[in-house]
Specification:
Layout: E1 14-18, H1 21-33, E2 39-43, H2 49-63, E3 67-73, H3 74-77, H4 81-93, E4 97-101, H5 105-110, H6 123-133, H7 141-145, H8 151-155, H9 159-177, H10 184-195, H11 204-207
Parallel strand pairs: 1-2, 1-3, 3-4
Helix pairs in contact: 2-4
Length: about 210
Amino acid sequence: MTRKRIPTQPKSTILIATANPAVAAYFSRVRKDCRYVNMTVEYFQAYTLEGLIKATGKARIAGKFASAWAIFGLDDFSITAEDIVAAQPFADARKVKLGWTLPSFSMWLYIHLKPLNQYIADSASFDQALAKVFPGFELTADYMTNEGQDIHLRLFSSFSKAIMNTSVYNKVSEKVNGIPATTFPLLYEDIKNICGEADLSHNQKLLAK
């Protein structure tokens, strides 16, 4: 008797694209350690926000991704909040979601540790503060691939705190810049909806640090 094959729906997929190699290295570790099998992380050598959006849009179509995010900070392209607002229609037309951090990705890492009640425009301030917690910290691909490869695991237990801190800090940023400091809460909500809960059962020792 021939068994009937039970059809299964293919999983939706999500693309995380960035022009910053350090951020690409970070999310590659997130993908691996959280076992997000339907997440793809891409590094594109884009020199402008428009270039990153274009590359992400093309990759979305080619890979048939259900969701595609272009991840960047102001410092990545030396742009302003006004430039992000101006780029939004361009991104919408290409079905690319914008995941930004003001002024850099370091802010997102730092906000896991402490709340922010005033806007900080200097990336170096975040880098220096992070270096006190993670010795040798640098927002570079080399650091994120080697000494800092477990940063997201060490911050994992503070994720809920980061979301709460971000809610407050986004309001501060909106008064200064006209836009939130980051859209990462929406990014992570999308990741959860598509990839499910993180499976960190094999990383308990690192989570306990």
